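Query structure, 523 tokens:
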């Protein structure tokens, strides 16, 4: 590793939060196999995968159970879904999943047999440098790996070759309470480092790879530094330089734009992607998943989840099979009877859940179980007093109070004029708001309404185009029919002269004679 002094820049806004992560400072425990798994078909950004199993089928651990509808698609836009344990498919139906709307989504339910029978016994590590970057990208796609930092973007879609010179691994886990990435880096640093090298290789080689860790995680930083030379020789062609860099502890440092700004000084223009400035960013958990897909031949079947809050006896990080009901995970942590609220994700960006029967999915990084006692501190909301505190902390340099006003009054056009979709829903504005306004709820509501309107408009446009095309087709067919009809009747209609009629009859007689004269030719 070539360790160099890394110049750092500061992004606008942000907050110094009370980390509270100390609550969950325990080693990674492994969750038991639950009696049944609820596996949603949509665990990534994009369209849901299509099931390829049916009720009653026996499925093996690691077997693909849902995938892109077009099985021959070269670069599928979705990540396939695997059975995370062996068992029998007992239902394919709508179930509640983690979503702010509380809507249901299609899930495959598997009754597990507890035997963990794999679909293949071959667990031998692959030699990645013996594969082409294209083959590696295909392997990542088949392993169902998505961004494990929370976004859920299919990882292989961020491995397209291009003018990428810097790969950043995001280890800046900045929300209070959450420590799953911290413990991954502490306990499995070689998975992160080798995963980073494999990612660099799959990108066709990058000049530099940076693993960014917040400076409140000294153990993770030291563990990564200790293994940063791992497999360096093998991957020399993939990256010229790999640096582990400490960044300041400032929320939301883990945001894509904020971390890029901090490490490179580059401010991404609105609606632009990092690859447009030669950068690709992946989460450290995604790098570890890529390590497991290649070195252990395991698709993405589990993830590390921080379980915390005052309604559990043991606050710890747990490796949990995807599809495990949250209740099963909480019970292993000593769930108390008086749990009053459950949040999926951190306190700043998480979603309050109405049930603990919801499944753990690829992006579930944290469960916060709170008692009623903890919730009693919630103050009532008051009108906005235009103090401007929200504006000062907004890392996206927006005007949160204006967005709130337009979202509340359902003036969605105006909200978009004020760049509503640049809001990363970090919650900094709501955190400092003296009126306790649930600002992010309003932004999510407005975004969801706008998306629904756009989708309805698209559907209406498609229906209109279909109707117009049908009308056009029917008119064209009618015209063609009329033209054929007229052609048939043309000699009669046009009133052909008697001489012409004679000529036509004579021509027919001649043709008949010619046929008689040469019957074989006619045959
Ligand atoms: S912080 Fe709250 S009260 Fe102050 S301007 Fe923003 S929304 Fe209004
Ligand atoms: S939630 Fe949105 S508006 Fe509020 S501070 Fe974060 S980016 Fe700004």
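Result returned for the query:
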């Amino acid at each position: 590793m070539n360790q160099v002094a890394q110049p750092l820049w500061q992004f606008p806004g942000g907050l110094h939060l009370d980390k509270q992560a100390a609550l969950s400072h325990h080693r990674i425990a492994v969750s038991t196999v639950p009696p049944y798994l609820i596996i949603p078909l949509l665990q990534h950004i994009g369209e849901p995968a299509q099931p390829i199993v049916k009720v009653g089928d026996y499925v093996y651990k690691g077997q693909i159970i849902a995938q892109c509808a077009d099985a021959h698609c070269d670069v599928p836009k979705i990540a396939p879904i695997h059975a995370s344990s062996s068992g029998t498919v007992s239902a394919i139906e709508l179930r509640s999943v983690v979503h702010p709307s509380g809507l249901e989504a299609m899930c495959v339910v598997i009754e597990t047999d507890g035997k963990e029978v794999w679909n293949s016994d071959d667990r031998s590590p692959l030699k990645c440098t013996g594969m082409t970057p294209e083959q590696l990208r295909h392997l990542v796609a088949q392993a169902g790996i998505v961004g494990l930092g929370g976004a859920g973007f299919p990882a292989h879609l961020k491995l397209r070759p291009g003018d990428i010179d810097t790969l950043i691994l995001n280890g800046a886990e900045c929300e209070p309470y959450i420590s799953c990435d911290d413990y991954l880096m502490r306990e499995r640093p070689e998975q992160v480092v080798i995963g980073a090298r494999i990612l660099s290789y799959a990108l066709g080689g990058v000049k530099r790879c940076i693993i960014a860790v917040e400076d409140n995680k000294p153990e993770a930083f030291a563990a990564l530094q200790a293994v940063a030379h791992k497999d360096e020789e093998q991957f020399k062609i993939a990256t010229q330089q790999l640096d582990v860099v400490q960044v300041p502890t400032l929320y939301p440092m883990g945001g894509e734009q904020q971390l890029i700004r901090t490490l490179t000084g580059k401010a991404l223009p609105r609606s632009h992607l990092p690859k447009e400035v030669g950068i690709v960013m992946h989460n450290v958990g995604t790098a570890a998943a890529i390590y497991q897909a290649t070195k252990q031949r395991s698709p993405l079947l589990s993830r590390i989840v921080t379980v915390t809050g005052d309604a559990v006896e043991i606050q710890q990080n747990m490796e949990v099979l995807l599809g495990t009901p949250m209740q099963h995970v909480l019970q292993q942590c000593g769930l108390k009877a008086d749990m009053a609220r459950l949040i999926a994700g951190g306190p700043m960006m998480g979603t309050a859940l109405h049930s603990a029967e919801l499944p753990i999915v690829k992006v579930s990084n944290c469960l916060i179980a709170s008692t009623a006692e903890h919730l009693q501190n919630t103050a009532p909301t008051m009108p906005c007093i235009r103090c401007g505190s929200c504006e000062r902390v907004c890392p996206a340099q927006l005007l949160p109070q204006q967005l709130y006003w337009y979202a509340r009054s359902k003036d969605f056009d105006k909200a978009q004029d004020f760049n509503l979709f640049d809001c990363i829903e970090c919650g900094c504005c709501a955190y400092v708001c003296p009126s306790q306004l649930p600002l992010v709820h309003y932004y999510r509501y407005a975004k969801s309404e706008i998306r629904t309107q756009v989708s309805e408009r698209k559907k209406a446009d498609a229906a209109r185009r279909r109707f117009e095309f049908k009308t056009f087709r029917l008119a064209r067919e009618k015209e063609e029919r009329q033209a054929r009809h007229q052609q048939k009747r043309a000699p009669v209609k046009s009133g052909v002269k008697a001489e012409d009629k004679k000529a036509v009859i004579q021509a027919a007689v001649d043709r008949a004679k010619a046929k008689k004269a040469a019957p074989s030719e006619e045959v």
